Amino acid sequence: AFVFPLPPDTPNIELPYARLDPSPRGRVKAFYRQYIRPYLSESLQCYVRRTMRTLFGQPIPQIAGVATPVPMQPRLDLSGVVYLHVCNPYDERKNWQDLVAAFLEALGECADATLVIKIVADGSLLMHAVNAVTTFYLAVAREHRCRIALVGGYLSDEQMHSLVRASTYYATATRAEGANLPLMDALAAGRPAISPRHTSMLDYFTSDLGWVTPSEEAPAAVAVGSERMFSRWHRIDFSALVDQFRASYELARRSPAQYGEMDH
Fold first, then answer.
1. CB 174 within 8 A of CB 233
2. How many CB atoms lie within 10 A of CB 60?
């Protein structure tokens, strides 16, 4: 697992996408490199570089997508209030960015709160996925006492069951779903959830099973293979998500009996 914040004795490290100017201009460049450039043809990338050079007076630096040098912890000990999320970070629907930002905003000062993100990726893709999440985490630039743990690689059914059992809640800020099997698995295991209620979740997720995050339908350009198509998905209410992290944490810490009624 990769756990943040890093221990105090960790040597200073540089992340390949984190050598950024923290100004709005620098963040625009970082967003472009991470989330837009991979979908552009070489000719369009050249056009964007020329345009950016004209606007900013210098080209966007070309940085290879190498693995992040964050030290890995061989064992992840979970205690306190634990939120679990399972996703492929390259799936635009999953909206893990809002989940991470809302968790830090809501519970940043709570040392006994942990957000575990189980990354669905293996091999070299896993390291690039870790790099993508880490880059966003650093861009948030917020000191905190809570923990964020990234868990990657293959887990057996028993290991996944153990991870769910160690979790207090399942949390998702997804924009659209065909099923959302991780959410269904967590609910089946008796874990309440924080989740929007749209698309497939309309069929099975209600306020009796946790906190329903408000959302509204919005237009979207979704990647389908090498192409992009216009569709619609749902934009979640970020402020409500922050409030729900706080409310769920307080319930688990202050009202264990009420929590016990909710998770069964």
1. no
2. 18
Q: What's the CA gap between 70 and 14, in Å, rounded?
A: 9
Tell me how long the chain is.
264
Instruction: Please report which helix (H) or strand (E) contains residue 123, including its range.
Output: helix 123-140
**pLDDT score at 58:** 45
Contacts of 254 (CB under 8 A, 6+ apart): none
- Say how far apart CA 182 and CA 77 lie, in whole Å: 21
User: What's the CA dihedral at 3, 73, 92, 235 to 10 degrees?
Assistant: -30
pLDDT at 61: 37
- Residue 228, both tokens: 């992009």
For residue 235, the model assigns a pLDDT of: 94
Q: What global pTM score does this model have?
A: 0.77
Answer whether 153's CB lies under 8 Å from 122's CB.
Answer: yes
Yes or no: say if 233 and 175 are a contact pair by the CB < 8 Å rule: yes
Q: In one letter, which amino acid is 158?
A: E
Are 93 and 77 in contact by the 8 Å Cβ rule? The answer is: no
102 class by beta-carbon count within 10 Å (0-12 exposed, 13-18 middle, 19+ buried):
buried
d(CA 196, CA 198): 6
Pairing relationship of beta strands 210-213 and 215-224 according to DSSP bridges:
unpaired
- Whether the Cβ atoms of residue 118 and residue 261 lie closer than 8 Å to each other: no
Q: How far is CA 92 from CA 88, 228, 240, in A?
A: 9, 12, 21
Rounded Cα gap, residues 25 and 237, in angstroms: 26
pLDDT averaged over consecutive 10-residue blocks of the chain (264 residues)?
Answer: 73 44 59 64 62 52 43 81 94 93 96 96 80 84 90 88 95 96 95 97 95 94 72 93 98 92 70
Alpha-carbon span 72 to 69, nearest angstrom = 9
